[in-house]
Design a protein that fits this description.
With 263 residues, the chain is of the alpha+beta class. The protein contains nine helices and ten strands.
Length: 263
C-alpha cells in the first residue's frame, strides 16, 4: 500500500514560503507540511487560498486546528492518459465484483432486488436486523448509500453503491482508489495513487471528460454517479421523486387508537 512521506517545513516569515517552482516540482510521494510560527500564522489562510488557485492539480489543505498547510502533488493528466486502458478495466472490474456481491448478499438476505427499490430494501433490512454480517468470505457493513465488503482472505475492499437502482458500478473517488490499492492482482500498480480521495477524483474527472466514464442519475433526487461508458448490460436508473416519503418511518399500529376511532 503506497504511503506518502511527510516533509515538514517551519516558516517564521513569508519569505520562507516555498517558491512556486519548488511546489510545482514536488515528487508525488511527498506530503509537504508548511508549519507557520505565531509571527505569520495570521497570513496562513490567505497563503493557503492563494496556493489553491495557483496549483489546482495539487491537494492543498488548510488545517483547522493547527497552524499548518499541507500540499501534495496529485496524479497528472499524462499519468492518467497513459494508463487509461487499465484504469477503465479497473472500473469495469469494480462494477462486475460489486454486482456479483450485492446480488449474492440480497439472495442470502431474501431481498428481491428486481421487485424492490434496492436502497429502500437494504435500508429496511439493516434498520430491522443490523448493519453488518458475513457473506461467504466477505464481511459486509451497510452505511449511508453504500455497503462495504471486506474479503477476510485477500484483504480486498469494495464499497457497493445502493442508490442507483440495479446499477452497482457507480464510482466514488475514495472508494475507487481503496479498491484499486487493495486488489492483489493489480499489484504493483502501473501508476501511483497516494491521495486516495484527490487522486481518485482526478482519475474520475479526467476519464469522464474524455468520455471513458459517464454520469448517471440515482434513484435519489439530485444525486448523480459516474460509471464506465463501455459497460455491458446497461440498466436504466429511474429517479424516484417521492423517495423521501418512502424513507419516513411508518407509524406503528395502535390498537388503542383504533378502538377509540371506531367509537
Amino acid at each position: 500500500m503506497l504511503e506518502s512521506t511527510e516533509k515538514v517545513l517551519y516558516v517564521d516569515n513569508l519569505d520562507e514560503i516555498p517558491s512556486d517552482s519548488f511546489i510545482a516540482n514536488l515528487s508525488r510521494n511527498i506530503n509537504l507540511i508548511i508549519a507557520f510560527s505565531a509571527n505569520v500564522e495570521p497570513e496562513r489562510q490567505r497563503v493557503g487560498e492563494d496556493l489553491k488557485l495557483k496549483f489546482p492539480h495539487h491537494a492543498v489543505g488548510i488545517y483547522r486546528n493547527e497552524p499548518k498547510i499541507g500540499i501534495q502533488k496529485l496524479i497528472t493528466d499524462e499519468e492518467i492518459d497513459s494508463n487509461q486502458t487499465v484504469l477503465e478495466q479497473y472500473a469495469l472490474d469494480y462494477r462486475e465484483l460489486a454486482t456479483n456481491l450485492i446480488y449474492g448478499l440480497a439472495e442470502q438476505l431474501n431481498i428481491d432486488l428486481k421487485n424492490e427499490i434496492p436502497y429502500v430494501a437494504f435500508l429496511n433490512y439493516w434498520q430491522a436486523k443490523g448493519q453488518s454480517g458475513r457473506y461467504k468470505e466477505w464481511t459486509f457493513f451497510f452505511h449511508g448509500l453504500h455497503c462495504h465488503f471486506y474479503n477476510t482472505k485477500t484483504k480486498q475492499e469494495i464499497e457497493v453503491p445502493i442508490a442507483f437502482g440495479l446499477e452497482f458500478g457507480a464510482l466514488d473517488p475514495y472508494f475507487f482508489s481503496t479498491y484499486i490499492k487493495s486488489t492483489p492482482q493489480y499489484q504493483p500498480l502501473p501508476v501511483d495513487i497516494y491521495d486516495d480521495y484527490s487522486d481518485g477524483r482526478r482519475i474520475i474527472e479526467r476519464l469522464t471528460t474524455k468520455g471513458v466514464f459517464e454520469k448517471i442519475n440515482a434513484t435519489l433526487p439530485s444525486y448523480f454517479g459516474t460509471v464506465p461508458t463501455n459497460r455491458t448490460n446497461k440498466v436504466a436508473v429511474e429517479t424516484v421523486e417521492h423517495m423521501i416519503d418512502l424513507l419516513k418511518p411508518k407509524p406503528k399500529f395502535s390498537l388503542l387508537k383504533f378502538l377509540k376511532f371506531k367509537r
